[in-house]
């Protein structure tokens, strides 16, 4: 038989997540994930072919019988270990300069997000520093952050612009993300978020017109020329930022430019953003701390993915989103780290842990939300998010007899995670 890229053998357990090609898990289906367990001395093996796709998952004896004569580029002995799909981070803001560690003290003293924003901090503080930074400086910062995500098990991540708020810096940020797509061992779904805030000196109406009539046309030119590949359009639909009608206009303009809708909604105030997103057939809506019951029903009907963000609710001491109600109502629920200067978390294991403790999700639900459902939030569930034949060979191998240790252990993931694998290639090893 011709050569293969990777053989993992001898594992104690593999959590497949899905077994029948599901594109998302909802409700009761999130509570029981597909797994394959060691049978006596017969461990679990997984094969990734030369094309980077999973060819086989089964017990060692069966894989040995079929692939015994195959020469693999790499063989990993995973005796006593567990295999999981590569983790998927459904919401991040990783391209920026100028940290906001000084704002943490303000928040601990009781300042709200909008109070910090009005005092000259928040997004506008980061915008000033990001505008001044060169592309090389921003790429260096982004590279370090993304590689730290890889070491924590993330193999696919959604990355936004949004700290430019004018055309030149927004395109600069998207070029930095494009470079990361080419050069770094992590897959990226890129999002244009020129409507992340209203720039100083502008009104909401002026900012809306700028996004629609200046920024999006430039983006379309760069996409047409092949200089940029951008997947999603985002707006911060929030009181004092972009109202529902401005959000609608920007999102519809993004769809006309070929972008999928993936936006911020109902975070600090009830805005009926979930209802808007469902009406527009949004691929995903993030935050949703203040979602209404009608919004939950609308998202369940539309299939729009709810990307909930445990770090944000934790750091800002917000009322958590109604994760249990959303899951019980058959909304597709995904997770994101919301990595940004306000919520400096690069770890999906930590994000899953917080989701379990603070949002009352089970570990099975949290893993489904960080794999197949997060893949659905960026339109890649047909190829990512589970360990099934034909899917991309992305996985995490942990030094534990059960996969739940990845969530149960609050920290120390650098010791727990032994391998992170992208398309059958080891991109991180702690061995």
Task: Characterize the structure shown.
It is a single chain. The protein has 431 residues and is an alpha/beta fold. The protein has 17 helices and 18 strands. Strand 9 (154-160), helix 6 and strand 10 form a beta-alpha-beta unit. The protein is globular. The model has no long low-confidence stretch (mean pLDDT 96).
Summarize the SSE layout with pairings:
Layout: E1 4-11, E2 13-17, E3 34-37, E4 44-48, E5 54-59, H1 60-67, E6 72-77, E7 82-85, E8 87-89, H2 101-108, H3 113-118, H4 123-132, H5 135-151, E9 154-160, H6 167-183, E10 187-195, H7 204-224, E11 232-237, H8 244-256, E12 260-265, H9 273-279, E13 284-287, H10 293-302, E14 305-308, H11 310-315, H12 323-328, E15 333-335, H13 348-358, H14 363-369, H15 372-377, E16 395-398, H16 405-408, H17 413-416, E17 417-422, E18 425-429
Parallel strand pairs: 1-6, 2-7, 8-9, 9-10, 10-11, 11-12, 12-13, 13-14, 14-15
Antiparallel strand pairs: 1-4, 2-3, 4-5, 7-16, 16-17, 17-18
State which percent range the strand residues make up. Answer: 15-25%
| Overall mean pLDDT | 96
Distance between the termini: 29 Å
Strand order, sheet with most strands: 8-9-10-11-12-13-14-15
Rg over alpha carbons: 21 Å
Count of DSSP E strands? 18
Residue share in helix: 25-40%
Which regions are unreliable across 5 or more consecutive residues at pLDDT < 50? none
The global form is globular
**Structural class, from helix and strand content?**
alpha/beta
- Strand count, sense and closure of the main sheet? 8 strands, parallel
Number of helical regions: 17
């Amino acid at each position: 038989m011709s050569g293969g890229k990777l053989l993992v053998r001898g594992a104690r357990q593999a959590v497949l997540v899905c077994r029948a090609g599901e594109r998302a898990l909802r409700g009761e289906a999130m509570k029981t994930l597909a797994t394959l367990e060691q049978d006596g001395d017969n461990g679990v093996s997984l094969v990734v072919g030369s094309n980077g796709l999973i060819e086989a998952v089964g017990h060692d004896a069966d894989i040995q019988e079929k692939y015994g004569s195959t020469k693999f580029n790499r063989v990993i002995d995973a005796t006593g270990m567990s295999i999981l799909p590569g983790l998927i981070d459904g919401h991040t803001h990783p391209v920026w300069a100028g940290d906001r560690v000084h704002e943490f003290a303000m928040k601990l003293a009781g300042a709200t997000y909008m109070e910090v924003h009005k005092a000259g901090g928040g997004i506008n503080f980061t915008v000033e520093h990001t505008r001044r930074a060169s592309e090389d400086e921003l790429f260096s910062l982004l590279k370090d952050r993304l590689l730290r995500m890889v070491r924590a098990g993330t193999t696919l991540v959604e990355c936004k612009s949004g700290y430019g708020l004018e055309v030149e810096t927004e395109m600069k940020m998207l070029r930095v993300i494009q470079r990361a797509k080419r050069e770094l061992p992590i897959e990226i779904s890129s999002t244009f978020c020129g409507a992340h805030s209203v720039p100083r000196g502008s009104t909401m109406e002026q900012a809306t017109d700028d996004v629609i009539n200046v920024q999006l046309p430039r983006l379309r030119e760069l996409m047409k020329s092949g200089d940029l590949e951008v997947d999603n359009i985002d707006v911060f639909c929030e009181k004092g930022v972009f109202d529902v009608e401005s959000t609608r206009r920007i999102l519809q303009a993004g769809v006309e430019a070929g972008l999928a809708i993936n936006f911020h909604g109902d975070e600090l105030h009830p805005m009926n953003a979930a209802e808007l997103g469902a009406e527009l057939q949004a691929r995903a809506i993030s935050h949703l701390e203040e979602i209404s019951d009608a919004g939950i029903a609308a998202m369940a009907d539309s299939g729009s993915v709810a990307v909930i963000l445990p770090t944000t609710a934790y750091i800002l001491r917000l009322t958590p989103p109604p994760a249990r109600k959303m899951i019980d109502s058959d909304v597709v629920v995904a997770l994101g780290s919301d990595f940004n200067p306000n919520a400096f978390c690069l770890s999906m294991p930590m994000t899953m842990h917080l989701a379990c403790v603070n949002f009352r999700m089970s570990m099975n639900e949290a893993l489904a939300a960080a794999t197949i459902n997060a893949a659905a939030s960026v339109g890649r569930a047909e190829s990512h998010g589970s360990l099934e034949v034909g899917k991309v060979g992305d996985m995490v191998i942990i030094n534990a007899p059960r996969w739940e240790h990845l969530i149960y252990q609050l920290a120390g993931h650098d010791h727990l995670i032994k391998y992170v694998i992208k398309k059958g290639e080891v991109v991180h090893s702690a061995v």
